[in-house]
Description:
Strand 1, helix 6 (about 120-130) and strand 2 form a beta-alpha-beta unit. The strands form 2 sheets. Strands 2-1-5-6-7 form a 5-stranded parallel β-sheet. Strands 3-4 form a two-stranded antiparallel ribbon. By secondary structure, the chain is of the alpha/beta class. Helices cover about 40% and strands about 15% of the residues.
Amino acid sequence: NIALVNEMALIFERMDIDTWEVIDAAATKPYGFMPFYPGPGIGGHCIPLDPFYLTWKAREFDYHTRLIETSGEINTGMPEYVVDRAMKVLNRNKTAMNGAKVLVLGVAYKSDIDDYRESPALNVIDHLIKQGADTTFYDPYISEYKHKGKIHKGAEKLTDDMLKNADIVVICTAHSCFDYDKIQKLSKEVFDTRNAMKDVKNRSNIELL
């Protein structure tokens, strides 16, 4: 279900269709529908890993679990797609990703927790760094994290200057404690991968996944 909606987001971006609006419309169906939403990838201790135990076991019985493996490919490709989309936003402002100041908000794998196991934000940050971006992160629940043998330290607090100085702010986790109106007001550009800013009225500098 998550892979399906992520793939829809990839298609709808090319069609210039608002994925979130489509999902909201579909959710008006009075029965038999559960909404799933796109995002920068999947995280946690179960969804990214557990289905592949079945894939491994199925191979013992000469069966290839195509749906699970294709879903995994789509979901694991989302962090790189997020960086590509952020690069497009920067390009519109004639700013190169190489050397751009990028602020990532949220590294937990879901809202309002301090768990970053398999969080897609970690891979988003990795891809940003590979592209040469001057990358900083802030998460009110996570001051540092370890990923691929390296310790990454975040900002101690989210300041006005951090928002103003960033060429783009990428929201990877929709923590409820973030002041989204303030983020919109002070930021040059915001790439919101979670529709966290859905209630912000001024959307002139907001790009949705």
